[in-house]
Amino acid sequence: MIAVPFRRASATTPDLGTTFLCEAPRRLELERGFGFHHGERITPFSIVYETYGELAADRSNAILVCHALSPGAHAAGKYAPTDLSTGWWDGLIGYDKGIDLARHFVVCVNFPGSPWGTTAPATIDPVIGAPYGSRYPWITVEDMVESQRLVADHLGIARWKAVIGGSLGGMQALMWATLHPDRVGGLVAMAAAAAVPVASVAWHLIGRKLIQSDPAFHDGDYYGTDQSLRGLQLARMVGHMTYLSEAALERKFGRRRRGGTRQFEVDSYLEYQGSKFAAAYDANSYLRVQAAMDEMDLEEKFGSLTAAFRAFRAPALLVSFDSDWLFPSAEMRRIHAAMREARIDATHLDLSTRNGHDAFLVDYPLITPPVRDFLAAL
Question: Which residues are catalytic?
Answer without folding.
Answer: 167, 324, 357
